Amino acid sequence: MNAFATLPSSVDDPLPVLCVGAGSMGRAWLAAVQADPLVRLAGVVDIDQDAARTAVADLGMDVPIGADAVAVAAATGARAIVNVTVPAAHLPVTMAALRAGLPVLGEKPAASTLAEAVRLATVAEQTGQLFMVSQSRRWNPRVFALRAMVEGLGAVGSVTTEFFRAPRFGGFRDQMRQPLLVDMAIHSFDTARFLLAAEPVSVTCQSWNPSWSWYRGDANASAVFEMSDGARYTYVGSWCAAGAETSWNGTWRISGEKGSAHWDGDHDPELASDHPPLDRPASPYSGIAGALQVFVEALRTGVAPMGEIHENLMSLAMVEAAVESADTGVAVTLADVFTRARELPPTSTAASG
Ligand SMILES: NC(=O)c1ccc[n+]([C@@H]2O[C@H](COP(=O)([O-])OP(=O)(O)OC[C@H]3O[C@@H](n4cnc5c(N)ncnc54)[C@H](O)[C@@H]3O)[C@@H](O)[C@H]2O)c1
């Protein structure tokens, strides 16, 4: 974690922010910014000016729009940006903002590839600006409750996530080489790190595309991670699985020496153990609104938040290691993935869709 410049914010003097990317998730962020009294929407940026204009009109607000975040920030006095562009634009948009002295709250993934994300971590260090990745599911209060249960289970043997849904997005996901692993599984991978307070060591993964899939790339995957505490984290998922769909958070089971914990992803987690959860504080935040609050608080206090780019890199590395294992058919160690990401040119790693 690196030290970063602080910025004040208060209800009387809210932080002016730009939303960059006015697509479907950008609209959700615009609503979150509009609802947060500690921030003020200073403008909306999108290379598709119609998208920006329509999004602003739908908000019922009158703020400047533009195609270049740094230029709009200079014109409007915005002090920070929320980057909700397509993954391929995360690197150029975030890098330009950091270099212009603007802290960034970015949608996941940090960048298209781990090499690009490592580069952004370096730019954050060099510029002294905060770059936080919004892994919004981390702030789910039920994930906090599940983690307290897991801590009460003693040593953990296995963690599994089952994720089965059938969304028809259109757009960039339909064209990605690994839509499920690259665009979706990062949420579960990141949550597994949080639940176990352990880091992945290696992974074996297979991915495939069912005959009926409407995705160009592999909509199905199965991955087993060896974690640093000896547990195995197993992820099984599909993005073209109609019927009996799981929640968007997937279904979780954690099996430990003192019992098990189970979560359907939507309701309160359940504990099957004689040992109570550890007494831990509940999550004070939730979802992307929570990520925004955390970002603003971090800027005010200078305390590095969860999701700060250095802390987030491992979640993207899990994605990239899983993709590499699926491509090669052999186990991949996370250390090797990081070594290659630091050596490779930033646009040539395997995980880009
Ligand atoms: N946290 C979640 O649950 C969640 C859910 C959905 C999407 N996402 C993430 O949010 C991001 C956006 O996804 P989406 O579904 O809104 O995509 P989208 O395609 O609907 O919208 C992306 C927008 O970015 C704009 N854009 C592209 N390049 C740009 C650039 N250089 N500068 C400015 N604007 C640019 C596009 O014109 C488009 O309007 C992705 O990173 C995605 O993974 C996260």
From TrEMBL:
<keyword id="KW-0560">Oxidoreductase</keyword>
<feature type="domain" description="GFO/IDH/MocA-like oxidoreductase">
    <location>
        <begin position="153"/>
        <end position="261"/>
    </location>
</feature>
<dbReference type="Pfam" id="PF01408">
    <property type="entry name" value="GFO_IDH_MocA"/>
</dbReference>
<dbReference type="InterPro" id="IPR055170">
    <property type="entry name" value="GFO_IDH_MocA-like_dom"/>
</dbReference>
<feature type="compositionally biased region" description="Basic and acidic residues">
    <location>
        <begin position="259"/>
        <end position="278"/>
    </location>
</feature>
<dbReference type="InterPro" id="IPR051317">
    <property type="entry name" value="Gfo/Idh/MocA_oxidoreduct"/>
</dbReference>
<feature type="region of interest" description="Disordered">
    <location>
        <begin position="259"/>
        <end position="282"/>
    </location>
</feature>
<dbReference type="InterPro" id="IPR000683">
    <property type="entry name" value="Gfo/Idh/MocA-like_OxRdtase_N"/>
</dbReference>
<dbReference type="Pfam" id="PF22725">
    <property type="entry name" value="GFO_IDH_MocA_C3"/>
</dbReference>
<protein>
    <submittedName>
        <fullName>Gfo/Idh/MocA family oxidoreductase</fullName>
    </submittedName>
</protein>
<comment type="similarity">
    <text>Belongs to the Gfo/Idh/MocA family.</text>
</comment>
<dbReference type="InterPro" id="IPR036291">
    <property type="entry name" value="NAD(P)-bd_dom_sf"/>
</dbReference>
<feature type="domain" description="Gfo/Idh/MocA-like oxidoreductase N-terminal">
    <location>
        <begin position="17"/>
        <end position="133"/>
    </location>
</feature>
